[in-house]
Specification:
By secondary structure, the protein is mostly helical. Helices cover 51% and strands 7% of the residues. Among the domains are: 68 residues, no CATH class; 78 residues, no CATH class.
Length: 233
């Protein structure tokens, strides 16, 4: 993820959060980015690196407990270690097993696309979204969004993409039924990657859950509904 995309994300989210929530968000982003992530997140958010480090420490303390009052999940993957889960997704059936067992092979697959993204991010982006819904393709054809996905790909590189995909099929470590705080699910009506049926047809899910299916939206519904989503948590 590039510093520019992080900055845009923080500008949309941080004004809606209190001080501690901002620290936790920055800490979570830094942890996902790995080595050097704290410095990058601090620059993108315009805060001291010590603030990000404090957020990381609070997350790692494991003492969030009742402070977690609400959760919003946007076009989320379901637990992929459940029987039949992989078959419900829009990705080919071999994709996530490969990402789980041989991420090095996935890096090889993405190497050419990441190289193209550095030279021509919009062309690489068109290849990525070509199999997605018309809603997603139309989103990235608009001038304000065109090239952003490709720029993220170039910034992450093939290793960053493969590492992210390697995490997707990992066990959650808990069942959705164990989550006690309210959860708000946001789904895109035309999402082809995580179709709405993945969640709407689950025999059991989060005990306290409010689901919003956004009409005519695809997988990247967060791009146009960020303020609305943040306002519900």
């Amino acid at each position: 993820m590039t510093e520019e995309s992080l900055t845009a994300k923080f500008e949309a989210l941080l004004p809606h959060l209190d001080e501690r929530q901002r620290r936790l968000l920055l800490g979570a982003e830094a942890r996902m980015l790995g080595h050097g992530g704290g410095r990058l997140v601090a620059r993108a958010a315009g805060v001291r690196e010590a603030t990000v480090s404090r957020g990381v420490a609070e997350l790692e303390s494991g003492e969030l407990g009742p402070r977690l009052s609400h959760t919003a999940l946007v076009a989320p993957m379901p637990p992929l270690d459940q029987p039949g889960a992989l078959g419900q997704l829009g990705a080919p059936g071999w994709y996530y097993p490969l990402a789980l067992r041989a991420p090095w092979a996935l890096r090889t697959l993405y190497a050419g696309l990441a190289a193209l993204a550095k030279w021509d991010p919009r062309r690489a982006e068109r290849l990525l979204v070509g199999g997605m819904s018309q809603a997603d393709q139309q989103l990235f054809s608009r001038s304000e969004w065109a090239g952003r996905f490709g720029a993220d790909l170039a910034g992450a590189g093939s290793r960053g993409i493969a590492d992210d995909e390697h995490l997707m099929p990992q066990p959650w470590g808990f069942a959705p039924e164990q989550v006690k705080s309210p959860v708000r699910l946001w789904l895109g009506e035309h999402d082809k990657l995580v179709p709405t049926r993945v969640w709407l047809e689950r025999p059991s899910s989060f005990p306290v859950c409010d689901t919003t299916v956004v009409p005519s939206a695809g997988h990247f519904l967060i791009a146009e509904h960020m303020t609305e989503i943040v306002g519900t948590v």
